[in-house]
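hiii, so i know i said id send this last week but things got crazy w the move. better late than never?? heres the sequnce for the chain we talked about at the cafe, plus the structure i predicted for it. fair warning i was half asleep when i ran it
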Amino acid sequence: MELRPTEIPEVIEIVPKVFGDERGFFLETWNEQAFRNAGLDVLFVQDNWSRSRRGILRGLHYQIEHPQGKLVRVTRGAVFDVAVDLRRSSPTFGRHVARVLTETNRHSLWIPPGFAHGFLVLSEEADFVYKCTELYAPEHDRSLSWCDPTVGILWPLAEVGGVNAVQLSEKDRTKAASFEQAECFS
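okay and structure toks below
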């Protein structure tokens, strides 16, 4: 696998080596040694799987205590995936990385602790799977507004039918903070 730093160097795009023939394909989705060789010593404690329909936007989520690092990928469908740097001490504080992850490109994204994360489903349905470095802690769960103008994410809304087609959870509709009001990391 190839680990490629993104515009925010701590966020890594993982491009797997795919071995395929008429029977199908094989690839590694996680390789501890490859991560260590890239200077990432990561211990995962939880795996998650979500299925969503076109236009579902999940996020932008983070945990203010027990922040989670996430290794994310799509096993079915396509999503527009986003990570926003919420580390005040970072030179990239407030900036974001966005990638389209699909079952066809088979890319993954490593999002370190200290980032808000979310995705918009572009296909009819998408299965999104991810490994986490910390357990889910609902009392520390936070949401950053997906459409905050300060962060300025250019979501591909036309691909899902426009802004009115975006579907959010109750939490993301009513409790998401603006960037200026969001609890951030030091």
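btw The domain at 43-174 is CATH 2.60.120.10 (Jelly Rolls). thought thatd interest u
miss u guys!!
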